[in-house]
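Annotated sample (chain length 347).
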Amino acid sequence: MLLLAILVSLSVLAQQADRGLKQKNAIDAAKRYKLWYDKPAANWNEALLVGNGFIGAMIFGNVQNERIQLNESTIWGGGPNNTIDSGAKPYITRVRSLLAGKQYAEAQALANSKLGPKGNSGMPYQLAGNLYISLPGTDIVSDYYRDLDIGNATAVVRYTMNGVHYKREYFTSFGRNVMMVRFTADQPGKISCKVKLQSPLRSSVTINEKKELVLSGWGSDHENQKGLIKFNVLTKVKNSGGRRVADTSGITVSHADTAVIYLSIATNFVNYHDISADALKRAEDILTRASKDSFDALLHSNIRFYRSYFNRVKLDLGINEAARQPTDLRIKNFSGNNDTQLAELCF
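Output written by the structure step:
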């Protein structure tokens, strides 16, 4: 009887350990490489970033009025110029002599008057603009969820409204250099939205013969340097089912099953001395090539490419129940909950 009791106890312990391992593995699989939240971003610091080193997007995840802030790596204020004053060279020896003689105030005064930047202190990096996606309805939303999956370089927003489960997926393609957004629902005909482009810089929005939105913009003047960087943001929408109408106010999709947004950005920047490229043609060529492929095809090829780099290194600091909490709570509670996996996620 004693032996039987021991065997039963060992069996129960083994089952409990197995359940614990399965639970841990479930946390691992679901949350390990994700920053996730149960509400939209209240400000820029809470938005989630996707990017491919050339274009980037900050995703806010608002339900009725989604905002995606857009960046491109070569949009600058001003234009090519040299901030160094060629007439400063003769004064360098004099400044060095004053420093050697410990005449620091005199050296500083001479440097300030003769060695400062010529006219400007450098050109600022600037924002391309925003992609706004407005959606109808002000009904109560439940089961809201958004995440950034750094294991796959993707972001997602999910929520339920009026019994319909909605999903948005986002990524920036490494192979095709576009940003992609897909809207889906678990019931047909439920996707209605309006897509608009806007920029805080000098810009205008038109519609081309392909029914694509075209934002044309210019970098701003800065410190006596005229803004010479030209850029274009192009957006097209493909919908399954429903109806799509495009004009200068935006692209409107009504009662579709799915809607997929393709977005490209390009500038006239070639290198520091050369800004002679055709920004519009560049953006058009990028969008034309990318739009030949489906969202799924671009997504799968993108994940394969990204993982070939991401999976080169592994770090396992352990994981506990803290990983079941939204990332903002994990950060808030970090000092007291032994959440080593958050440090792993930061790494």
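Annotation: The mean pLDDT is 91.
Annotation: The first strand starts at residue 34 and ends at 37.
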